[in-house]
Design goal:
single chain; alpha+beta; two-stranded antiparallel ribbon
Length: 297
């Protein structure tokens, strides 16, 4: 514990000797981690939105009016036997029309006077969480289209596949920007430690002359890099929270008819902790890169 306290005090002394450099470093790291925090926040809520949309994903098998009872039982059985399907609901023409009126809301009056058999009967199947796979759902839909008594099969194929493609592109873009942010932080911390080494080169040489080990000489710089990285990450996360509080905490995303909204959430505490630890780790790596070049024996 005594050594750790000494290394920590030395690191704090380095920071106090160069408060402007340390302040600029923390501010710069904070800005790049603000960008990372916004990306994580957007990604977190986009994933929640995707999960909510996927949870409402259904396949509708519309039945021909002339389909026999045997055909209808076979269709229901085929859906229920699928490992993708959680539940199958039989929808009569009357229920389908009521559902359609609900979706139209204030414009439902356009349906007045139309018969209750306007829409065909159908089987509506919801999916298990592990069954929400685009390729598997497409195969199930194709297999249902070829069954006797089927008029049409719909599963929101257009928006679902576009949603999956958008989420994949968003993850790739986030990973690329995150990589650039890590690289920028490494460079910032590395340059700060380089300046710290230059300002203490005479002190370092004196310690070497009296027999100080490389571990003893390098460790305070590692502490300094870790502190700068962690402080910058924490400050960036704080600015992300402030931005969320001012702009996003009261935002409600409508999710369909009725009182259904998606409320934006901030990052979970464990994610915020990982971000700060990530800042400390990047500070450690940046210090290591700098000392490898500028503090050779």
């Amino acid at each position: 514990m005594g050594r750790i306290a000494y290394f920590l005090s030395q690191a704090l002394k380095h920071i106090r000797r160069n408060p402007v450099v340390a302040g600029v470093t923390v501010a710069t790291v904070a800005v790049v981690f603000l960008v990372l925090g916004v990306l994580l926040l957007a990604g977190h809520n986009l994933q929640r939105l995707a999960d909510r949309l996927e949870s409402g994903l259904e396949i509708s098998v519309f039945i021909k009016a002339e389909a026999s009872q045997e055909d209808r039982r076979a269709l229901r059985s085929k859906l229920q036997d699928s490992p993708l399907v959680a539940m199958v609901q039989s929808v009569s023409p009357k229920q389908a029309l009521l559902d359609f009126r609900q979706r139209l809301g204030e414009q439902a009056a356009v349906l007045d006077g139309l018969g209750e058999d306007l829409l065909p009967a159908s089987f509506r199947a919801s999916f298990k969480p592990e069954g929400r796979d685009a390729m598997a759902i497409r195969r199930l839909a194709k297999s249902m289209e070829g069954q006797a008594g089927v008029e049409e099969v719909q599963y929101g194929q257009g928006w679902f596949e576009r949603l999956l493609a958008f989420m994949a592109a968003a993850r790739l873009l986030g990973a690329l920007i995150g990589g650039l942010i890590v690289l920028a932080t490494l460079l910032v911390v590395s340059n700060t430690i380089r300046l710290s080494v230059y300002s203490r080169r005479e002190e370092v040489e004196i310690f070497r002359l009296v027999g100080a080990t490389e571990f003893f000489l390098r460790t305070p710089f590692y502490f300094e890099g870790v502190m700068l990285g962690a402080l910058g990450a924490a400050a960036g996360l704080g600015m992300t929270w402030l931005l969320y509080f001012l702009l996003g905490s009261d935002l409600r995303i409508p999710m369909g008819p009725g009182e259904q909204f998606l409320v934006l959430q901030f990052l979970a505490p464990w994610v915020a902790g990982l971000v700060v630890l990530g800042g400390a780790l990047v500070g450690l790596l940046g210090t290591s890169a700098s000392l490898g070049r500028h503090l050779r024996a």
